[in-house]
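Sample entry was shown:
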Amino acid sequence: MSKSILLKRKLRKARVRAKMSGTQEQPRLAVFRSNRSIGLQLINDVEGKTLVSVSAKEVGKAGNKTGQAEKAGRLLAEKALKLGIQRAVFDRGPYKYHGRIKAAAEGARAGGLKF
């Protein structure tokens, strides 16, 4: 990638991240997207601990990558509800709210998590 694309991504991540913080009651739902997979984590920023994490690899082959992201979001919401977490702050990081990021967020909402 060129320097300008990486710089824009870094600035976008810092801008998004500066506006939010996760707590025990309302953790931050952080998203990581690679070319082949997607990872979701619920993070308590006060203690610096990951409460729940899910990868698209845990979901298995669920159609295309967007379908895997949606099912990963549902699985994360299911695990969070078992721990008593009902609300979260969505951190899209350097990614635009589109495609797999949007599918993961909608899957988490469909699973019962509130943003």
The chain has one domain: 3-110. DSSP finds four helices and four strands in the chain. The first strand starts at residue 28 and ends at 33. The mean pLDDT is 90.
